[in-house]
Amino acid sequence: MPPEIRRAFPWFLVGVCGCAVIWALSFTTLPPADFAFQNGDDVKTLDPARATGEPEHKILQALFEGLLRSVPDGPVDENGLQDVTLVPGMADLPEISEDGRTYTFRMRDGMKWSDGTPVTSRDFAWSWQRVLHPETASEYSSQLYYVVGGKEYNTAEVAVGDRVEAELRERPASPDPLQPFPRGTVVHGILESIEKPERPEIEDETSDEGKKLLADWQNDWVYAIDVKPQTDAGIDWDAAGQLRYFTKQTDGGEFDGKKLESVHQVLIDFAHFGGVETPDDQTLIVKLNEPTPFFSYLTGFYTLFAVNRECVEKYGAPAWTKSENMVCNGPYELEFRRIRDRIRLRKNPYYWNTDAVDLDRIDAYSVKSQTTALNMYLKDQLHWASDVPLSVIEEIQERDDAKVGVSLAVYFYRLNTTRKPLDDVRVRRALNLAIDKQQIVNEVTRAGQIPAESIVPPYLSEYQSPSGEGYDPELARQLLADAGFPGGRGMPTLSILYNTSESHRAIAEVIQQQWQNNLNVKASLENMEWGTYLDKVFTMDFTIARGGWNGDYPDPNTFLEMWTTGNSHNSTGWSSPEYDKLIAQSQAASGQERMDLLRQAESIFLKDLPVIPLYFYTRTNLFSPDYAGFEPNVMDQHPLHLIRRRDSNDE
């Protein structure tokens, strides 16, 4: 090291330490928020199109608002639960056609983004198309498969004769040419032909190698499109077009002596012929493939929220979600986000009902430790603790400030059916039969949870699940022997993946011991932070993974459709054509016929067992008596903008 650098090095260290002290002091000198709550893990994203988890749900419901909103409403019933109802959000309640396939939403007057610009129907149309765009990679894109053309656009399914769009490789350099938005030049036309080379032999299309081989083959396709002229009035579909040839290969090339133009995607023309129309800024018309009784609820779920197009295209993803860039339309806006500390929300003055929002600032703390959350609550550093220590759960439930209720949610273990020996249903059944779920809810969770033998919770009045298999270690040992592992001999150690939580670990340890005692099967435990855990589940980089699912809407479909082939939430490798067919048939049915079809599908699911249902949730929350606007409900919906300081009217 040169002497002048050596002499300067101590001063450099002093500077670094000084910066660290200033940064640390910024945490301690921060003025307190009006309300603070435990939000569990750090959120992985604040992009509604990319979010998937419960920590994200609470924040996105405060930052954004959909066409409609699902809110707790009315008195608390004899079970201590409050009803949940749909209310207008950015739009009034929809007009629904007689056949149940067309929803017409009218935007409400005065709806604005947090920069003061108007929220229009076109914002929702653009945002929904963004969710469906293949390069957005939204795990919840299937929620828009009910819309005409939604699945085909998302999965890039095109056929000869389709009206299509082709995006040339001319994306703007700013913010990043690899970003799908803003888009490059898009041409429109009629697909005349697709020339495909010979398909390679692929043993496993779900493997990384299989996916690459399939993608490389598809990139070699040649699309012949009769491209139609575009005028100020739009695309002239009746005019004579120009036959042009396109490929996804980045270098273009030639085909039969014809020039090949390189494109990012060739997709159906969803913007013009999909099931979303915007005849004007105030009207959104949605056309569905089949009557979908829960579609109104979906419009209040964060995947279907509108995002500000100008903001997304200016900064790109994920930079548009930074506090200094974000434009939102909910009751709160993002003041700052500090990793492993908190998210601070600030009241949005442009929100249509801002006068009714009582709390100016809210802190969402990234507190995973149940003990830490309880201590912070008891010291008034938190006003809402949503995950309390299992060791004192019974005592906590006796407190006057405890809010306890059942929840439309299930706790389960995903099984990677593409890995041996979990590809054998006998092994999967044996693992399930060897778990004493009653012991788990009695001795570990201890909050009134119900052991689960099905995947759909028993809180939907119009639906009853088929019976699954209960605790039977003798049958479990027989099945394991039939699968070639008598007495557990030859059975590999099974790894259980879970995200950081004291309760997840406690449950995994009990199951680890039960499998050892009942089957002589060993299991190892693998703990991951929330973001890494989600990535591993999504890419199926696990053997067994802890999972949980909160109902997105009050219908059994929210617990069953996710296991269809290719669904981004499946993440088990399991596929059943019969199951897929029943789910599809249910979406074209209604009433009791629909419920019977869903029940048949769940029966197949419980026989094949790609997941092990463990228990149905109850929620135990500690909520400060200084505040009001919080009561248990089966959907576990607690909008932050409805929480308020308690006054004499709340007594």
From TrEMBL:
SUPFAM superfamilies: Periplasmic binding protein-like II (SSF53850)
PROSITE patterns: PROKAR_LIPOPROTEIN (PS51257), SBP_BACTERIAL_5 (PS01040)
Keywords associated with the record: Signal
UniProt xrefs under InterPro entries: Peptide/Ni-bd (IPR030678), SBP_5 (IPR039424), SBP_5_CS (IPR023765), SBP_5_dom (IPR000914)
Pfam families xref list: SBP_bac_5
Top-level taxon in the UniProt lineage: Bacteria
Record GO cellular component, one term: outer membrane-bounded periplasmic space
Domain Solute-binding protein family: 85-568
Similarity comment: family membership: Belongs to the bacterial solute-binding protein 5 family.
The name this protein goes by in its record: Oligopeptide-binding protein OppA
Source organism (scientific name): Rosistilla oblonga
